[in-house]
Amino acid sequence: MNESLVIIVLLVSIFGFLGAGVWVGLTLSGCAWLTMALFSSRPAGDAMSLTIWGAASSWTLTALPLFLWMGEILFRSRLSTDLFRGLAPWLNRLPGKLLHTNIIGCAIFAAVSGSSAATCATIGKMTIPELKRRGYPDDQVLGTLSGAGTLGLLIPPSIIMIVYGVAANVSISRLFIAGVVPGILLAGLFMGYIIVWSLLHPNAIPKEQDTLTFGQKLAESRYLIPVVLLIVAVLGSIYTGIATATEAAAVGVVGALILSVLQGSMSWTTFKESLLGATRMYCMIALILAGAQFLTLAMGYIGLPRALAEWIASLGLSQFGLVLALMVFFIILGCLLDGISMVVLTIGVLLPTVQAAGLDLIWFGIFLIFVIEMAQITPPVGFNLFVLSGMTKKELTYIARVSVPMFVLMIVGVMIIYWVPDLVLWLPQNVR
């Protein structure tokens, strides 16, 4: 059996298992074991045990369950209500008015969560009922929330950044720093869309009575202080070099616990639910990561990375052509897989090609997160679509349709960071 046929059989088996509903982690491990057993001389059991142990015992990966736990704690606190109360008074004079709470609220919560689904769900629980009560159009409320929820992946700390950093062996702290400006850029694009849409549809936005004085607005802003302090503690400890990403995650957990206790929202039941929620999520991710590491090893034995690199090289694509091809590839893949699975399935195969094209791995990580964000709002496997559909009982296709403008803006964001790569690279190169 020639190499090309082996690769085809492997890929067909992977997507066959995934299509049959087998867990992603088990699919990856099983296909890797089968490949090693049939097409290499190395004992498959020995390779699997060493690879999975190495993947599971990474110190860097310790940050992942900690950030997951921090997000679970905050998800169960009164943070969302406080965010709305602190932001709303300042947005009444801006075109689009309180629609901007979706964007700003998600951007702020993303800086302490790291999860797209948690960001979308937490802010959605707060803004959807309130904006609906005030008469804001459903399509814009859900569309902007669907897109803004993806900021949980781009604005640090980000779970996907940790997964990519481990898989690609790049600095997670530098990835965190690199995500700041693109995150602000994408939030700005979303807010710009709201402003333009509201100016084109002035009658669709209800009139808000701005009766608060400047002093009263400042007083309401005090509700933002706890989350701002937590952001400063987590990200400030990383950017100043006081703590690594893993140590900063521990700081975040302690800060989230203190915050929830002071708010009076922490109980023994809440503590258990947050811990169990983070544990379940991490076990799923860890199984996928371990299987992906083993599959990467198996692919190396059968020559898949080399074959893929040679095939892409034979296409004669320019660097820009490669970026466009990868964007289309990940958008299609995002219709079938979740973000973490996309990263761990492809990174080991694509990194040689990406490096050969002269793309910086930090920049490529941010690019990858942009296209994974698109996957969060593309059916049939769009986590943000699932979250909003479950919260509002709206059809998945409806939410996907109203999210199209956000999808287009993400493509615009990718083009901007390609043509101006310093938006990604300047900050990590100059902050030590």
Automatic annotation (TrEMBL):
Q: In the UniProt record, does the keyword Zinc occur?
A: no
Q: Which Pfam families match?
A: DctM
Segments traversing the membrane = 6-39, 51-70, 141-164, 176-200, 221-242, 248-269, 281-302, 308-333, 340-357, 363-386, 398-420
* Coiled coil (residue ranges): none
The superkingdom listed in its UniProt entry is: Bacteria
Q: Which family does it belong to?
A: Belongs to the TRAP transporter large permease family.
Q: Could you tell me one molecular function GO term of this UniProt entry?
A: transmembrane transporter activity
Q: What is its main location?
A: membrane
| TRAP C4-dicarboxylate transport system permease DctM subunit domain boundaries | 11-422
Membrane topology of this protein: Multi-pass membrane protein
General function of this protein: Part of the tripartite ATP-independent periplasmic (TRAP) transport system.
Protein species of origin? Advenella kashmirensis W13003
InterPro entries of this UniProt entry? DctM, TRAP_DctM
Tell me what this protein is called: TRAP transporter large permease protein
Keyword annotations for this protein, in alphabetical order, are: Cell inner membrane, Cell membrane, Membrane, Transmembrane, Transmembrane helix, Transport
Per UniProt, subunit arrangement is: The complex comprises the extracytoplasmic solute receptor protein and the two transmembrane proteins.
Q: Which NCBIfam families match?
A: dctM
Query: Where is this chain's protein located in or outside the cell?
Result: Cell inner membrane
User: Which is one Gene Ontology cellular component term of this protein?
Assistant: plasma membrane
